[in-house]
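A further point concerns the way the authors explain their paired sequence and structure data. The central task, working out the C-alpha cells from the amino acid sequence alone, is never made concrete. I therefore recommend that a typical entry be quoted early in the introduction. An entry of this sort, consisting of the sequence and the corresponding C-alpha cells, reads as follows:
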Amino acid sequence: MKRGFGFLLIALFLARTAFADILFININLNFQEEEVARKAALARHENFIVFPVLTDAQKKFLAELKKMDGDRIHSDPKLRQAFPNGLPNIPAEIEKALTNMDQAHRQLTSFIITSHHVNGFYGAIGSIDDLQLYHTLASHPSAKTMHTFYGWGCYSTEPQVAIEIKRDLPQVEILAGWDGVAPNESKAADTGVLAYMLAHESNAIDAVNRHNLRGFLRNMPLVGKNLGVSNFGLEVCGDLETPHESIANITDTSKLCTHRALFGDGHGFGVMGMYYSTYQNYNSGNLPIPIDLENSDLRKFYNMAKIFSVCSDIQKLQMAHQFPTEDQIVHLIHFQNSMDNFVNFYANDLDRVSDLLLANNFRDTLFRSNLNKRSIRGYMNSLLTVAQRLTAKKSDPWNFFSQHSSDADIKLLRSTAAKINTLLLANKCVPDYWNDPPDNRQLSGPSSACLANPF
C-alpha cells in the first residue's frame, strides 16, 4: 500500500451522541490548527476549550521559536519565556480541564490533541502516555458523550491506538488522524482536513451507520496529490481500507496477523518479508541510505512495521533480535544525522582512536568523509586488527578486553567498537534527538545501561 501522508478514519462504535464541547490540547503548539478548531466550534455552536491558553503575543513568539527550532523547541531555554512558572504538566492539565467540564455539567463531543506519537502523545511542551490519556478520559462523566478522537500528528492512528481506544473508550465512534507522516501544519492538507472533518462529523457518523465511510472519504474535496496527500485511509467497524485498496482488520489481530499476510504463502513475500529484505540491503551497506526521508522504501517499511506491531509473531522475532524494532528502522532512516551526532558527541574519544590507528600504520578516514554502513564495518576491522596486535591474539579479543585488560589503549578500542557496533551498526540505543541534525546544545547521550552488552 502506498504511504505518504496517510489520513485515517477509524469507525470504532455506532452509538450517536449529542453535540456539545470541543477540547483542544495543543501539546505541539500548532496554532493554525487551533484556530481551525476554534472556528469549527463557533460554527457548530459549541464551546471551545483549549490548553494552553496563550495571548496573541505569546503565540507569535512561540510560532517564531518553533519555526527556528523545529522539533527541538522542547529543549530550547527560550521556551521558558512563555512559561515563566515552568512547562505545564500535561496529564494534570487534561485532568483539570475535564474536572471543570464535569462540574459545569458540560458534554465533550470532540477531543483533539496535537502531538507526535510514539507510545504516547508528546510535543513541544510535554507529553502524556497513551493509556494514561485514555484512562483519564474514561474516568470523567463529561467525556462519556465523546464521539470523535483526533490524534493530530504522525502515526497517531496506528493499530495499537485503535485497539486501546476501542477497549477503553467504547463511546468513541471515529478515530481520525494520520497513519503515517503527517503534513506540516501550514499546509492545506493538514488544516484543510481538520476543518472538513470538524464541519462534517455528523456526515461521517451517518456514513458509519450506512457502512459507507469509504464513500465519505472519497467525497472529501482534499483527496489528491496536489495537496501532498498521496493516500487517505479509513476503518469501517475495524476493517482498514483506503480509497484504493482494502487491508486486514487492524483491531482484530487474528485477521491482521496471519502468517500469509506477514510472510507470504510460499509463492511470494508477504508484507513484512518483502520490506525486510529491503531493510537488510540498506542496513548492510549494499544500498546507500535514501536521501528522501519521507517517501523511501525504508519509510514504507516503517509504516508497515507500525501497522503490524501488534502481531505476536513480529514481537517474538523482535525479542529474538531477528527482526528490527520500529526504533531501529527510524534510526536507519535518519542514519546520516545519527552518524553526525555520534561524531560530535564522541569527538574526544575518536581523536584518541585516530592517533592510535595512525601509530599502527592505519589511515583513519572513517569519520572524516563519505561515511556509510560499509565503511563503518571496514573501520571496525581496523580496530580489531590493532587490538589483536596489542594483545597478540588472533581471535576476536573484545570479550577478553572487558574481563582482563587494564590497558588504556585496549579499553579505548573496545569502548569505541562497542559504541559503533550498538549505535551505528545495530541502530540500537540511539537517542531520539540524534534523528535531527546536530547542534551545539549539550544534551544527554546514549544510555550507559543500553551500551553494557554490545557484542
About this structure: Residues 335-435 form one domain.
